Amino acid sequence: MRNLETAMTVPAGPGLGARFPPGATVVRRDIHHGKVWSAQPYRAITDTGTVLHLAYWPGIRSLAPTAWTTALRTGDDTARKNGLHDLAAGTWELGPWTWQHTVVRARFEPGECFSLHYFQDPVTARPLRLYVNFERPVVRSGAGIDTLDLLVDLVVEPDLSGWWWKDQDEYEQGRRLGFVTDADHRMVEQARERALGLLQDRAGPFAEPWPVWTPDAAWPLPILPEGATCGSVPPAS
Q1: How far apart are CA 79 and CA 71, in angstroms?
Q2: How many CB atoms lie within 10 A of CB 126?
Q3: Is residue 204 helix, strand or coil?
Q4: Which residue of 15, 44, 108, 215 lies most exposed, with the fewest beta carbons within 10 A?
Q5: What is the pLDDT of residues 194-225, one digit of tens each?
Q6: Is the separation of the CB atoms in 131 and 103 below 8 Å?
Q7: For residue 79, how many other CB atoms are within 10 A of its CB?
Q8: Which residues, including other chains, have CB under 8 Å from residue 218's CB and lie 6 or more apart?
Q9: Which residues in 171-183 are b (16+ Cβ under 10 Å) and which e?
Q10: Cβ contact 29:19 at 8 Å
Q11: Distance CA 3, CA 201 (A)
Q12: What is the pTM (predicted TM-score) of this model?
């Protein structure tokens, strides 16, 4: 697939890596044992070279494991569990998936083992929930960022008044299957403590106001570039 927007990067300051200009397509990939588990094209909103804000909205097409998309369509918990076995064994298959129902603005910062995902109603822009997604630290590439979702999430009320853990059962199963390694587990435990501390202190990313954002109806949808499942993805053109 060919993108309608440029994904050229702009040099940043020393040690910050390349910056993505507003409007660029940024491919977020999850990679396990050198194989792409998911690939999602986001639109760059702002990028300082350290903090990267991306957006995702209904109609954007991605690649995702077929067991996971089957579980989403049918509510079949067996398919979801089988997907974890496939993930641990490296035997998953990718298929197309079209995002629905929510607008998402995501915040990534280098060195952090979690990212923030703000979910809004696509019609009213009403804040719905905030996900703190625990993952391996992102690595920038010419076309986007690579990481690996480590299954567990912290779900936070839009006004930060309450929170709860999501998918702890998946996380524990990932531990048993060896997908979440001991090193990953230590990293996630430290990241959980750090994220909760920042949340409770209203510090770091939680000190910022909710980033209300809606896509311009005239914008083309971000599209995955050719080679999105290859080891190195060239920038879209």
Answers
A1: 5
A2: 11
A3: helix
A4: 15
A5: 999 999 999 999 999 999 899 999 999 999 99
A6: no
A7: 18
A8: none
A9: bebbbeeebbeee
A10: no
A11: 41
A12: 0.88
